[in-house]
């Protein structure tokens, strides 16, 4: 478990977004978001896309932060490939 939960925790904490607010935006139970947040479960790939969409509606910068932390090394590798 891990990368999605770490990314979610950083994005929510940095932008002051509650787990409940994200859960409401996703139309799911807060306990599900809590499991991701505490790295007890990982969201499915389709759900990661839904998380990004929900975060964009709440706070676009939080969505970007989530993507950067979640994809971190992949994004940096691509940036290096273009240099």
From TrEMBL:
Looking at the record, the residues that make up the HTH cro/C1-type domain are 8-63
* Coiled-coil regions listed: none
Task: Fetch the Pfam families from UniProt.
Answer: HTH_3
Protein name in UniProt: Helix-turn-helix transcriptional regulator
Known CDD domains for this protein? Answer: HTH_XRE
GO molecular function annotation: DNA binding
Q: Which Gene3D superfamilies match?
A: lambda repressor-like DNA-binding domains
């Amino acid at each position: 478990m891990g990368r999605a939960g770490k990314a979610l925790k950083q994005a929510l904490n940095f932008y002051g977004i509650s787990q409940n607010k994200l859960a409401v935006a996703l139309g799911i139970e807060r306990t599900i978001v809590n499991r991701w947040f505490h790295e007890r479960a990982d969201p499915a790939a389709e759900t990661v896309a839904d998380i990004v969409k929900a975060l964009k509606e709440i706070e676009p910068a939080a969505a970007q932060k989530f993507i950067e932390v979640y994809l971190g090394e992949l994004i940096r590798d691509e940036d290096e490939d273009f240099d």
